[in-house]
Amino acid sequence: MIQTIRKAWGIPELRKKIIFTALILLIFRIGNAIPVPYVDTTLLASYLNQLSTTVLGLYNVMSGGAFADATIFALGVQPYINSSIIIQLLTVAIPALERMARDGGEEGKKKIQSITRYATVGIAILQGWGYYMLMKNYNILTTTNVWTALVIIVSFIAGSSFVMWMGEQITEFGIGNGISIILFAGILSRLPSTVSYVSSYLKSGTITWWMVVLMVVGILALIVLITHVNEAERRIPVQYAKRQVGRKLYGGQSSTLPMKVNMSGVLPIIFAQSIAMIPSTIAAFCKTPAEGTFWYGFLQAIDTKSVVYMIFYFIMIIGFSYFYATIQFNPIEISNNLKKNGGFIPGFRPGKPTSDFISKVLNKITMFGAMYLGVVAIFPLIVGKIINVPALAIGGTSVIIVVGVALETVRALESQMLMRQYKGFLE
Predict the structure, then answer these.
(1) Domain edge (last residue) among 142, 170, 189
(2) How do residues 184-221 score in pLDDT, each as one tens digit?
(3) Does residue 78 share a domain with residue 174?
(4) How far is CA 48 from CA 55, 67, 228, 236, 249, in A?
(5) CATH value at residue 170
């Protein structure tokens, strides 16, 4: 990765893109340090630290700690991510959107992107209002009136919209996917506070040095596993029949149909984590029940350190992996496209036999990818239970996002360098 960046830095065009991306990330980090007015940030940070294992804790990690400080970028990229997921699911459910995405070409993509932007603003309005009401109900605001509500909510909405715009600028003029890189920068900025957090546990005697070594070894093992699986794919051989068009003979070559082992990415973990944390999030806002009662036992069972939670979380990850894989990869459509282009999989007739074979392969690799995601998500929970550090509950999500975005950015750099070499050769 370092060697790739060094080579890219030597190319003037790519150097400008890297500098542009770095400047956008600098603006993002500055915005993360500017709090909105009328908020007692010290009280808010101490309150949200108690909710580190809830959905609010997940939002705080995704925003790079800005959520706990109520900065202008507190909502971060969450509204855009939520809106993208919703529109993607609606594209499958609503025929008009499906036709727009499939047959609309570049104009259709622009319309889908425009709908996603409007949905982002709508979600940001809801989240900004909910965040304001949370601070108001727990007396975290220094003053409460209509003007205060307007300033805080508008600041959150404007900040989220600006983050979305910065992500699009990186995608167009910088390196890699802008939203992913901003998410990557936010999570990585939490590294110093995470080290300080673990150090405080070490100084207080809650954990020992061998536990810290276990954490470091575990993180390195996760990085190696994520790197290998992220690049893994199942390549199905495809043969194209020869066909004559006029005086020219087309086809006859061999190719492959690549199917990534982890085609769902980190989304199944985020879905499963958000839903699995809903009961504990609701419980955090309710009065703590007396010890020995049914509700006390129920809350202990759904806690992020409980075995019941881990099993439920693991099953949900597998379920969402299959759900998202079926949305992204349609065996019938792939089989029809192969048939139209004169392609076939050796040993299988075109049509239903081909689609059945692709479905069978898809189920196998999805199971492996789902098990991999489950291990990545559950491993930090198990380590956190052993060393009694609850904040590790969302560590697996952070690691897989950081490693995945780093690999994606390196691939983007390599493809642009390769394109430049071809361009120079042609000239």
Answers:
(1) 189
(2) 888 888 777 777 767 776 777 767 777 777 777 877 88
(3) yes
(4) 11, 9, 35, 49, 67
(5) 1.10.3370.10
